[in-house]
Design a protein that fits this description.
The structure is a single chain. The protein is mostly helical. The chain folds into two domains: 6-65, no CATH class; 73-153, no CATH class. Helices cover 57% and strands 4% of the residues. It has helices spanning 6-14, 21-33, 38-65, 86-93, 96-100, 114-121, 129-141, 147-150; strands at 105-107, 151-153. 5% of the residues are buried.
């Protein structure tokens, strides 16, 4: 069996396809061996290109996000920059506040670990300062606890 001509692979690249030449070559060879119809070849090519673009886009967005490095909770320094009430945090992980209908607001200065803890906790949604204040006002007005029941200062 003949390998696909190199110029076909190069021409596909000039069209802006991001898939690696080796992947394109493999796709064309397997399609030829399997006697794939032109439609099947196009479908496979589109899927290969979509995966390549998704990978490239994710890599680019990850680099641009400048997320830095994160530590797992077992390596978190509970005494930096101030002491965090670890027992309160562990109680939050039980999610018993959901059964009681309470909300949790993590607040504190920049760099104290609010985002890292929110990320590990999973079911918590983020919101802006204005939305958080509005929620606290609503809760206080409905007898469901004031700021003491909905927040912990770290």
């Amino acid at each position: 069996m003949n390998a696909p001509p190199v110029d076909v692979i190069d021409k596909l690249g000039t069209l802006g396809l991001r898939a690696a030449p080796e992947a394109l070559r493999s796709l064309l060879e397997s399609s030829t061996r399997g006697r794939a119809s032109p439609t099947e070849v196009c479908e496979r090519l589109v899927e290969l290109e979509r995966r390549a673009r998704d990978t490239t886009n994710l890599d680019r967005r990850t680099r641009a996000a400048t997320l830095g490095t994160f530590c797992t909770l077992d390596r978190f320094d509970w005494n930096h920059p101030r002491s965090i009430d670890k027992s309160l945090y562990e109680r939050l992980l039980t999610l018993d506040f959901l059964e009681k209908g309470h909300n949790v607001l993590l607040r504190g200065q920049s760099g104290v670990g609010k985002t890292a803890h929110k990320r590990d906790g999973g079911p918590v949604e983020g919101s802006g300062l204005e939305q958080s204040i509005e929620v606290m006002k609503q809760l206080a007005g409905h007898g469901r606890g004031g700021p003491e029941a909905t927040s912990a200062r770290w």
